[in-house]
Design goal:
mainly alpha, 14 helices, 2 strands, 453 residues, two-stranded antiparallel sheet, globular, 2% strand, Amino acid/polyamine transporter I, single chain
């Protein structure tokens, strides 16, 4: 999971009102925050204040930097495991396909934003294309991501704690994360924690770079143990999970309309998307190739690469930086979760507030935020599978949301498309729906299999 250049506020908090209809920060005047398992940024309205130099809009170069901060996150840590499961040929082919797909989505989103110049977020594009149905589809996918994102961050935080304190088991490490999060989740004003987003982004970049250098420092290589094709024992379901993890690494498009709405020229967003895509693709290739060639296939593919490195004090430093990043993102994700369900549960939560007049809204917020942390704690303990949670998020947030819906909206809103591009959009709809269905089945099957064990 842009406002002013330093205060991005994308879609994922287009939360529902008490009656179930969603409203955007730009429409309601309420502050907004983008939250996903990738990174975190906070801010207010998507438009700079009138009468200021920033009111001219964000240049495409700054938008590129915002995209890099948003999309370059924990998905990169799953890539060596993807290569170990799928082999060189399939992994590189999928990586190239998703990189090209991400670049094309930059073009498509630019066209949609120009076609609906008043749109500030993706739900408004959906409304222009398909009315209430389009809005509801966007809300459903964003809402699903809001529920699952805290679980992914809890699992990564738990695994980082175990690397910092190797003696801790899964239950104890998950409890440590929950103990940290229960008080932090009570923050209601997201601006109280917004400044930490910069620290978190720097920590993530440092963790990835340090991981890359540590891998390079490993003596020898496992190149001979790698394979061109998927290893013979790889099941189709495992391959789908790996493909979804790779898709997750290139995800984040659900937030793009908020960035586009602040730009000087909406049609320039394609350049920002293409440059950001090319930049983090280089990092993805590096960490994938180095990780797979140094570790080979013989490591736990369900864990982030930071949790399978040989232990030393550098491992502690890497995982400490990763833990800081994930806890900050967790705080902001929990804020979005709590705000959403406080609004949805207003008819029932108001009774709790009436029963505790001294606490008021804090009572309902505490109930919902604690439920978020406890749910994440229980799931992380029961299913501590990093790759599985990324796959679940990818099904709705990185396949259906960025490919299926924009392609449908493009067919409705862009009548002047070339014939080949209309064919491409129809193909994207069909392929992404099938990928989401088969990927969802694989994720559900793996989840049930894990619980049975």
């Amino acid at each position: 999971m842009a406002g002013k250049p330093s205060e991005a506020a994308p879609l994922l908090i287009q939360v529902c009102t008490a009656c179930g209809a969603a409203s955007s920060p730009a429409q309601s005047g309420a502050p907004g925050v983008e939250l996903s398992a990738r990174t975190e940024t906070a801010g207010g309205s998507s438009q700079p204040p009138a009468g200021t130099p920033a009111a001219l809009g964000t240049p495409w170069g700054i938008t590129t930097a915002l995209l890099l901060a948003d999309m370059f996150g924990i998905g990169s840590l799953a890539l060596p495991g993807v290569f170990a499961r799928l082999g060189w040929l399939v992994s590189v082919s999928l990586l190239v396909a998703f990189a090209l797909g991400c670049g094309y989505l930059g073009i498509l989103f630019s066209k949609l934003a120009v076609a609906v110049p008043s749109a500030q977020s993706m739900d408004e594009i959906g409304a222009a294309a398909m009315g209430k149905t389009g809005k509801r589809l966007v809300y459903a996918l964003a809402g699903s991501a809001i529920v699952v994102d805290p679980i992914a961050l809890h699992i990564v935080s738990m695994l980082a704690v175990q690397q910092i304190f190797p003696a801790l088991g899964t239950l104890a490490a998950s409890a440590v994360v929950a103990a940290c999060m229960l008080p932090l989740a009570q923050i209601q004003s997201i601006h109280d924690a917004a400044w930490l987003s910069l620290v978190a982004t720097v920590c993530m970049i440092c963790a990835v770079l340090a991981t890359l250098f540590k891998l390079l420092a490993i003596e020898g290589s496992q190149w001979d143990a790698t394979s061109l094709l998927p290893p013979p024992g790889t099941r189709g379901i495992e391959g789908l999970i790996a493909a979804l993890c790779l898709c997750f690494a290139f995800g984040g498009q659900v937030n793009w309309m908020r960035y586009i709405s602040s730009m000087q020229h909406r049609e320039d967003f394609r350049f920002s998307a293409e440059l950001a895509d090319a930049t983090f693709s280089v990092f993805y290739v590096l960490i994938s190739v180095v990780g797979y060639s140094k570790l080979g296939p013989n490591f736990d593919h369900s864990k982030p690469i930071t949790s399978v490195l040989p232990w030393d004090w550098w491992t502690v430093v890497i995982n400490t930086a990763l833990l800081i990043r994930c806890l900050v993102a967790y705080v902001l994700n929990a804020n979005v979760f709590s705000d959403l369900f406080c609004r949805l549960g207003r008819p029932w939560l108001s009774k709790l507030e009436d029963a505790s007049p001294r606490m008021g809204r804090r009572a309902s917020w505490a109930l919902v935020s604690c439920s978020c942390v406890i749910m994440s704690f229980l799931v992380a303990y029961a299913v501590p599978k990093f790759d599985l949670v990324l796959a679940v998020i990818a099904v709705v947030g990185d396949v259906a949301a960025p490919y299926t819906l924009p392609a449908l909206f493009g067919l409705k809103l862009l009548p002047d498309l070339h014939r080949w591009e209309r064919w491409l959009l129809k193909t994207l709809v069909a392929v992404s729906v099938l990928f989401a269905l088969f990927g969802g089945y694989a994720a559900l099957y793996t989840l049930l299999e894990t619980l049975a064990d």
